[in-house]
Design brief:
Distance between the termini: 28 Å
Largest sheet: 4 strands, parallel
Number of domains: 2
Number of strands: 7
Number of helices: 13
Length: about 240
């Protein structure tokens, strides 16, 4: 029986970076997986959860949880959303009527590069392009999911990977953090761009649409000559 693999677009992927979703699907197909949409899935609940609104987070996440119930795996092109679903859903639904379902679905959730490298062993994907890129570690992906190597393994197969100094330093987005502390958030994004420029990086790659939106926004506003792109798009361009 063929495994059912769902591709969860996330809110930012759906509303802000639809190309990331399209490119993720292309990359998965290149790796031999035919990803399916997840009808009824909306949000993972992370924004409300991080803001302390547990009841609201549960109400939002329940739709996505139930929509993913019949899938063998859920692939997410976002470290932060994958961390919410994989690590925090069991806590979010603890004592709830869907607690058992959350405990069953959560381990089946994988960040995109994690699924490609650790589950499929699908590296490299694409042909070398000779392009020089630097990688930015998103906070949730690195500190919660503990995913340092998978995106780098994939990037080394298609590009010249240059380590970005202080790549693990937060870009300043943090969801609601950017709204609550805009001055601090902006300064952190500008520091990330300054680091990239000092290192001579023309392209900064991340696996989290939130980081990309934030860094890309500051680059646009300040005129920084730095391209900010999702890992999936770098891989798709190399196919």
């Amino acid at each position: 029986m063929t495994a059912m693999i769902g591709l969860f677009p996330t809110c930012l992927g759906d509303a802000v970076h639809p190309r990331v979703v399209t490119d993720s699907a292309r990359v998965l197909r290149a790796a031999g997986v035919d990803p399916a949409p997840i009808p009824g899935a909306t949000c993972c609940g992370q924004p409300a959860w991080n803001a302390g609104f547990t009841r609201e987070a549960r109400r939002v996440a329940r739709r996505t949880l139930r929509a993913a119930a019949g899938l063998d795996a859920v692939v997410v092109p976002s470290g932060s959303c994958a961390a919410m679903m994989r690590l925090h859903w069991p806590q979010l639904f603890a004592g709830d009527r869907d607690a058992a379902l959350a405990a069953r679905v959560a381990p089946r959730v994988f960040e995109l590069s994690q699924y490609l490298v650790e589950e499929l062993g699908a590296a490299p994907i694409g042909s070398p392009t000779g392009r020089a890129v630097a990688y930015h570690d998103s906070c949730h992906m690195l500190r919660e999911l503990r995913l340092h190597d998978p995106p780098r393994v994939l990037l080394r197969g298609v590009a010249e990977l240059e380590e970005l100094p202080r790549s693990d330093r937060c870009c300043g987005f943090g969801g609601a953090f950017a709204v609550r502390y805009p001055d601090v958030s902006t300064a952190m994004a500008d520091d990330k761009l300054a680091t990239a420029r000092a290192a001579g990086a023309e392209t900064v790659v991340s696996a989290d649409p939130g980081c990309i939106m934030h860094i890309e926004g500051r680059a646009s506003r300040t005129g920084a000559a730095v391209r900010v792109v999702h890992l999936a798009s770098v891989l798709a361009e190399a196919l």
